[in-house]
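Issue: ligand-bound run for NAP - logging full I/O for the record.

Environment: standard queue, default settings, no custom constraints.

Inputs:
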Amino acid sequence: MTTTTAGVPTPELNNGVRIPQFGFGVFDIPPEETAQAVRTALETGYRHIDTAQLYGNEAGVGAGIADSGLAREDVFVTTKLANDAHGHDNAITALEGSLRRLGFDYVDLYLIHWPLPARDNYVRTWRGFEDILRAGKARAIGVSNFQPAHLDRLAEESGTRPAVNQIELHPALQQPELREYHQAHGIATQAWSPLARADVLGDPVLTGLAEKHGRTAAQVVLRWHIQLGNIVFPKSASPDRMRQNIDVFGFELDDEDMAEIGRLDEGRRTGPDPDTFNA
Ligand SMILES: NC(=O)c1ccc[n+]([C@@H]2O[C@H](COP(=O)([O-])OP(=O)(O)OC[C@H]3O[C@@H](n4cnc5c(N)ncnc54)[C@H](OP(=O)(O)O)[C@@H]3O)[C@@H](O)[C@H]2O)c1
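Outputs:
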């Protein structure tokens, strides 16, 4: 497997596009602070940024990348369709807005942020995404917060499998069935809130493993994700924690460590349930 300069693996998505397995998420970073945060992340070695139309900070992401001096093709950028823009033509128009704000000709990955099943419009939206892929405005397309029934329906009613499904996933919500579904259908698993928004970091199992390996609990959790094959992009506003988070490629959890973390699954969400969320 090839890696980025920070030693981050770059696995292939189902259409051959490579994605850095470790990135930086910018949810909750205020728009006026985003360019600086992205620049710091890039200086630290991150080469993958995860934003969304709903976060209101795409312009800061674009500015941070432009200021970094890195070539556009050296940074993998994901954005996501806003919930009020479902529909074939709306999805295309919304991406044009993202590209304008980012200052780009294309994004690396464009996701349907939520399936919003009660609105019953995600299949038409996906057809817009297929047109976006054909037009070269996104190098890969995928979904977020989709459940198996939503993925089955896309498979039945369209010709393209999502490259990724970005789902809430951390030690308190391990999603084994969905991860198995993804594996069986060539869909990469992206884990959002990989640290459960720091909520799991005081768990004695995790602090015990941190002590065993001379690492922090956050590094243990992020290393667990990497060994499961998940793609992660923890958010941090602190340069020190940004550095700490990506520094997980110099140690390994053994089978018993992995099993211990496996037993922390409580099926506990920190965010909305995708089957009922319709904002
Ligand atoms: N698709 C979706 O629906 C969806 C939903 C939510 C999130 N996401 C994506 O996933 C990304 C990450 O998720 P998230 O931001 O919700 O949660 P997260 O990455 O699990 O956790 C972020 C929180 O943990 C703290 N933190 C980070 N590193 C730490 C460390 N080493 N030690 C202690 N605390 C640490 C941060 O505080 P500081 O900033 O103070 O360090 C922040 O409060 C988002 O930024 C976004 O890109 C997607």
